[in-house]
Design a protein that fits this description.
The protein has 241 residues and is an alpha+beta fold. It is built from eight helices and nine strands. The protein has two domains: 2-68, Winged helix-like DNA-binding domain superfamily/Winged helix DNA-binding domain (Arc Repressor Mutant, subunit A, Orthogonal Bundle), CATH 1.10.10; 79-240, GAF domain (Beta-Lactamase, 2-Layer Sandwich). The strands form two sheets. The protein has a six-stranded antiparallel sheet with strand order 6-5-4-9-8-7, sandwiched between helices. It has a three-stranded antiparallel sheet with strand order 1-3-2. A hairpin with a 5-residue loop joins strand 8 and strand 9. Helix 2 packs across helix 3 (41-54). It starts with a helix and ends with a helix.
């Protein structure tokens, strides 16, 4: 237990070093950081050396001071891309929610899972469920299967690298059957989760693709299975597209 606590303390110190760099002080020396944080210079040096190797800081050869590196900028692009998706998608999501009277979700792929970024409920209806920040498997959710249909083969292979969990009797656990499903999704443009992840919940999902045709996000509409019949499924698919 003691070892884990020390590891967390080390991470805390490292992050505090990064936080020393500001707009007012974009470059700092080891001595300056040491004085700011009350850390030994040797400790600060080790932290900065590690960050430098990883690209999170760089050293100015003219004055030997450190500054934030290009890797920080790359991470900010990842964050901003998700924020841009949300800004663009939210009005569209609200329109779908109001038209369908069902909940609408936005998610992005993360490995073999989806991570929910945003949700919208119909105007005048209190939110029944907020999935923001939650994760779910790609192979048994409409939004996940929609994105999986436009993902590299290695992602599909990774899903079935280990035995997959059977959430309900409807869950697709065989790789060959899922690949057939993904071809169907590609041909019709949307995916269906017919109680494959949760009993009593039916969903329709669509992938948002980049210029290369690969999915980088997805939208889905979900509701109680008795309410999402075949006719409404087609309606929801039309709204998503």
């Amino acid at each position: 237990m003691e070892r884990k606590i020390n590891q967390v303390k080390s991470l805390y110190k490292a992050m505090k070093v990064l936080e020393c760099f500001t707009v007012e002080q974009p470059e700092l020396s080891i001595t300056e950081i040491s004085c700011k944080l009350g850390l030994y210079k040797s400790n600060v040096y080790n932290i900065l050396s590690t960050f430098e190797q990883l690209g999170y800081v760089s050293q100015n050869p003219e004055n030997s001071k450190y500054r934030l590196g290009i890797k920080i900028l790359n991470r900010s692009f990842v964050f901003n891309s998700h924020m841009s998706i949300q800004r663009i998608a939210l009005p569209h999501m609200q329109r779908i929610a109001d038209s369908s009277r069902e909940n609408v979700y936005l998610a992005v792929p993360n490995g073999t899972e989806v991570v929910y970024l945003e949700s919208c409920c119909p105007y005048g209806i209190a939110p029944s469920r907020n999935l923001q920040g939650e994760r779910a498997p790609m192979y048994c959710t409409a939004i996940g299967k929609a994105m999986l249909a436009y993902s590299p083969q290695k992602v599909i292979d990774e899903v079935y690298k280990d035995k997959v969990r059977k959430f309900t009797e409807q869950t697709i656990t065989k790789k060959s059957k899922l690949e057939e499903e993904l071809k169907l999704i590609q041909s019709r443009g949307y995916a269906i989760d017919d109680m494959e992840h949760e009993y009593g919940i039916r969903c329709v999902g669509m992938a948002i693709k980049n210029s290369s045709g690969e999915a980088y996000a997805g939208l889905s509409v979900s509701g109680p299975s008795p309410r999402i019949d075949d006719k409404k499924t087609e309606l929801l698919a039309g709204l998503l597209q």
